Amino acid sequence: MVQIVDARNPLFYRSIDLDAYAKEGETPRRTLLIVNKSDFLDDRQRTAWGDHFKKENIDFVFFSAKEAQDEIDEEAKKLRQEQRNAESHDQYDEAKPAGAPQVVEAEAVVAKKETSPYPVLSRVELLDFVTKIATDVLDEVGVRVKDKGLIKFGMVGFPNVGKSSVINALLGASTYSHKTQRVAVGATPGKTKHFQTMILSDKIMLCDCPGLVFPSFVNSKAEMYCCGVLPLSQLRDHVSPCQLLCHRIPKRVFERTYGIKIPISKTAKETDPVGIYALLESYARNRGYTTTGKGGPDTSRAARDILRHYVNGRLLYCHPPPDVTDPTIFDIHELAKAQFPDLVEPETTEDEVNEEARASTEPNVDEELDFDTTVEDKRAVSKRLKKHGRKGRKGRDKNPYEDSDFPGGAAGVHINSGGKKKNRRP
C-alpha cells in the first residue's frame, strides 16, 4: 500500500490508522509513503522532514510528479521535433549530436541531488525503487496464481495530492502522446471517479483509486479548503480559510506577488498578520472585481482567487515537523526574504500607504474646492454641485409647459396640469 501525501503538510494527509490496518492481519502489507510535491521544500526543510520520518520508522521517498512530468514532456517534445526535422530533410543523423549534451547535463543534476541526505527522486530512481520492493515481496510471498505473478501497488490518499500524476510519471506517459496509457488528472479534487488498474511491468500493477478523506476531529473545514481537499466552487464562507492564509503568508509576500498595497493600522508591526478584508478589498480593486448593485469590491471572488493560488503553491507555506530543532527553517518572514532577495522596507510611512489605498475608493469633496475659501463659499459650491441632482416627487415641476406655446393648447386640451383633463373633445 502506497500513501501519497503533500510535502507542504505531510501529517495532515497521512493516515496513521490506515497504515496500522494494512500491517495487521494474517497477510500484512508493506507500506510506503511517497511525499509528492517535494519541489516546494528546500534542502533544509526536506532534511527536517526526513529525520522525522526516519525517527518514526516510516519507509518514505521524496518525489515531484510535476518535475518528472515536465521532463517527460520535454523529451517527447524534442523527439517529436527531431522526427519532423528528419522527415523534412530526410536525414536521420542530424538529431544525434543534440543528444550528447543532454547526458552530461542529466549526470550533473543527479550528482547535485546526491549531495542532499534526502534527495528528490527522479522518475527512473522511483521506478527502480518500486521494482526493488516488488522483487523483495515476490521473494517473501512467492508467485500467486490469482494475481498472475503481479505485485499490486495501491495508491491511496486525500484528493488532489497527485495520485494520478505519480502514476502517469511512472508510466512515462507524455501529454503530447496519444498512444501511451494514461490516467486523467485535474486541478479540481475528485477527478478520479472509479477504481482503475495500470500494468507498469511484468511484475508491477498500479491501482489508482478515488481520493479518500479520512475522518479526523482535529482538522477544520477551513483547513480542508486550504489544503485543496474540498473544491473551492463549493466555498460559502470565505472568512475562515482566509484567516488561516493571513496568519501564514506575510504582508510583503502578498504585496510583491500581486502588486498591491495593503492598508495597515498605525500601531501594526511588519510581522503582524494581514487584515482579511484589507487584503481582499485591495486585491479586488486591483483586479477590478466589483459586485452588482452598489459596485463595491467583490471580496468573495477575490478570496477564491487567493485560495486557489495558495492551493497551487503560488503562495507557499510549508508546515514544520513536530520535532523540528531549528524553527527558523520554516519561519515565514525569513523565507520571504529568501524568496525576494531585494525585499526592503518601503520608504513611505504607514499613513501614506493607508491614504494611497483609500484614495481609489473614497471620493474627496475638497478636491473640487479651494482650501483657502471660507466655509460659506464651500457651502455655496456644494449647493451648486447638487443643483442637478435627483429630485423627489415634491420637487418636480407640476406644469412644465405653462409658459410655452404648445400647439395642443389651441385644441382646447389642457395638458399643463395633472389629474382629470378638462374640455375633452366629444
Helix/strand layout:
Elements: E1 2-6, H1 10-13, H2 16-23, E2 32-36, H3 43-55, E3 60-63, H4 65-89, H5 100-114, E4 120-121, H6 123-141, E5 151-156, H7 163-171, E6 196-199, E7 204-208, H8 221-226, H9 239-248, H10 251-258, H11 276-287, H12 299-312, H13 332-339, H14 350-359, H15 375-385
Parallel strand pairs: 1-2, 1-5, 2-3, 3-4, 5-7
Antiparallel strand pairs: 6-7
Structure description:
The chain is an alpha/beta fold. It folds into 2 domains: 2-208, Rossmann fold, CATH 3.40.50.300; 221-359, Conserved Hypothetical Protein Ylqf, Chain: A, domain 2. Helix content is 40%, strand content 7%. The chain has helices spanning 10-13, 16-23, 43-55, 65-89, 100-114, 123-141, 163-171, 221-226, 239-248, 251-258, 276-287, 299-312, 332-339, 350-359, 375-385, and strands at 2-6, 32-36, 60-63, 120-121, 151-156, 196-199, 204-208. The chain has a 7-stranded mixed sheet, sandwiched between helices. Strand 2 (32-36), helix 3 and strand 3 form a beta-alpha-beta unit. Mean pLDDT is 75; it is low at 98-114, 360-375 and 408-417.
